[in-house]
Amino acid sequence: MDLKRICILGTPRCGSQYVSQLIAGTIKEATGEHVYNMLEPFTESAKYIPVFEPGTRKLMHKVIDYSMLIEERVEYVSSILKECDPNIPLVMKLFPYESTVKHLDKILNDITDSGFKFIHLKRTNLEQQLISYALSSSTNKWTNRWGEGLVTTPVTVQLEPIAYLYNMLTTYNISDNPIPVIRYENCLEDLSTLLNRKISISEVISRKQRDEADPYRFIINADDVKQFIQKLINGN
């Protein structure tokens, strides 16, 4: 796969922040060029947009303090991609939020036309992903610099976010075209095979991918949450 520009197709809490850092570090090591991480530029709720550095066609983030409509965001980000220097390495993430899906054809076409290759990131352990999303949604603590949640104290978890994410995971494929699949739990090996090179971990914390600790350890209503998740997974 071309190491220039990669878009990660995924879902919330799939590990995309960590994987995007691995990809960026590997591209930088292979090309010697800094990789601009666009994060989730097409996510309607994102409090940032990509802008050009003054006097250049290199990208940087601009924090916004207003709600940008999805239609405006799609047009704006697409225009930035078209104007951006095609030689600049980029990595981004794209999730199938309801607002994004409405404009998906245009988004995918514009990303493809801008030289991106796609990978589909999934988690083998669906229960872990649902719990992670439930904790983050209930506490509004989403990530630290390495892509891990910040929950460290007991919390009562709401069930609605679990059902929301499960529906996203099981009812919508972001693309019908064959796309290489990366598993979060095995991402170092999967990425190495896909990119045909050793994955650089020099710029991220090398950590154990499988969390062997009890995933319910911070959840006060753990029994209810576990039962709810099992019913979803088992189709009850």
Write a concise synopsis of the structure shown.
The protein is an alpha/beta fold and 236 residues long. It is 39% helix and 13% strand.
**Count of β-strands:** 7
Query: What would you say the CATH architecture is?
Result: 3-Layer(aba) Sandwich
Structural class determined from secondary elements = alpha/beta
Order of helices and strands: EHEEEHEHHEHHEHH
Mean pLDDT: 87
> Looking at the structure, what is the overall shape?
globular
Task: Please give a structural write-up.
The protein is an alpha/beta fold. It is 39% helix and 13% strand. It has helices at 16-31, 70-83, 98-101, 104-113, 126-139, 160-171, 187-195, 222-234, and strands spanning 5-9, 36-37, 48-52, 59-63, 90-94, 117-122, 181-183. Helix 2 (70-83) runs parallel beside helix 4 (104-113) and helix 5 packs across helix 8.
